[in-house]
Write a structure and sequence with these properties.
Pathway: One-carbon metabolism; tetrahydrofolate interconversion. It catalyses: (6R)-5,10-methylene-5,6,7,8-tetrahydrofolate + NADP(+) = (6R)-5,10-methenyltetrahydrofolate + NADPH; (6R)-5,10-methenyltetrahydrofolate + H2O = (6R)-10-formyltetrahydrofolate + H(+). The chain contains ten helices and nine strands. By secondary structure, it is of the alpha/beta class. The radius of gyration is 19 Å and the shape is globular. The relative contact order is 0.17. It has two domains: 87 residues, Rossmann fold (3-Layer(aba) Sandwich), CATH 3.40.50.10860; 118 residues, NAD(P)-binding Rossmann-like Domain (Rossmann fold, 3-Layer(aba) Sandwich), CATH 3.40.50. Helix 5 packs parallel to helix 7, helix 6 crosses helix 7 and helix 6 crosses helix 10.
Length: 281
């Protein structure tokens, strides 16, 4: 047995093609392109790479990118003021604050300054509540991308036993909520979980979101399980890929699995935000 790949590159291209069609229609009917404001605080090289990728994808699909770069010494108050201004700007449809921010900045306070109607990265408490209660709002981009990827390959979620490894506010917790809303039985595992191996062995779906390379051993994977690896450190995921691929039915590559879906979901939600906020002329 050898797992089939959950190909995020191919699936995200289909999503982005659809966004491009929608953005062109938005421009035709509204007289302007959708606008995504991206805020980068500090000089983290990986963050600069991610923002550059997002700016390039915006250009490819017809979304206008407004990039705001702030210095490492930016205070929480200054960052909140910038976000508040963007939240009130009628020409901005979506706001992305690149994670992580420097240690001296209160990231949660900054996130909460984002108008929920423009929270296309799904990081506010309002967005989390919307995910938990199937209300109108935006999903966290990576969790939303994971669900979109599973749907694209028609992976059944209802009735499945899903184990989420990691409990971050922007990945582990929200992906668990989205799986729960799709009628999966969800178990959260984390750094204090004493019997991680046994939980993994019972899982029909494993979502690895710990950011610890090779944390999950391939021989822990249940035969025929679905493995979604959202970890990414030095081109390695949280799951031992080769040995896990020998046991699972479906698995995401790293890179090329979850990552492309994150950007595609972010831009799809930017288009959706723009459409909700404006009327046809």
């Amino acid at each position: 047995m050898r797992a089939q790949l959950l190909d995020g590159r191919t699936t995200s291209k289909t999503m982005l093609d659809s966004v491009a069609v929608g953005a062109a229609e938005f421009l035709r009917t509204r007289g302007r392109a959708p606008v995504l404001a991206t805020i980068l605080v500090g000089d983290d090289p990986a963050s600069h790479t991610y923002v550059r990728m997002k700016v390039n994808r915006c250009k490819q699909v017809g979304i206008t990118s407004r990039r705001i770069d702030l210095t490492e010494s930016t205070s929480t108050g200054d960052l909140v003021r910038v976000i508040t201004e963007l939240s009130s700007d009628p020409d901005v449809d979506g706001i992305l604050l690149q994670h992580p921010v420097p240690p001296g900045v209160d990231e949660r306070a900054a996130f909460e300054a984002i108008n929920p109607a423009k929270d296309v990265d799904g990081v506010t408490r309002a967005s989390f509540a919307a995910m938990a209660f199937s209300a109108d709002g935006f999903s966290s981009a990576t969790p939303g991308g994971i669900i979109a990827l599973l749907d694209a390959y028609e992976i059944p979620l209802a009735g499945s036993r899903a184990v989420v490894v990691g409990r971050s506010a922007i990945l582990g917790k929200p992906v668990g909520m989205l799986l729960l809303e799709r009628d999966a039985t969800v178990t959260f595992c984390h750094s204090k979980t004493g019997d991680l191996e046994n939980h993994i062995r019972e899982a029909d779906i494993v979502v690895a979101a710990a950011g610890v390379p090779d944390l999950i051993k391939g021989d822990w994977i249940k035969l025929g399980a679905v493995v979604v690896d959202a970890g990414y450190v030095d081109n390695r995921g949280d799951v031992e890929f080769e040995s896990a691929a020998a046991r699972s039915a479906w698995i995401t590559p790293v890179p090329g699995g979850v990552g492309p879906m994150t950007i595609a979901t972010l831009l799809a939600q930017t288009l959706a935000a723009a459409e909700k906020r404006t009327i046809v002329k």
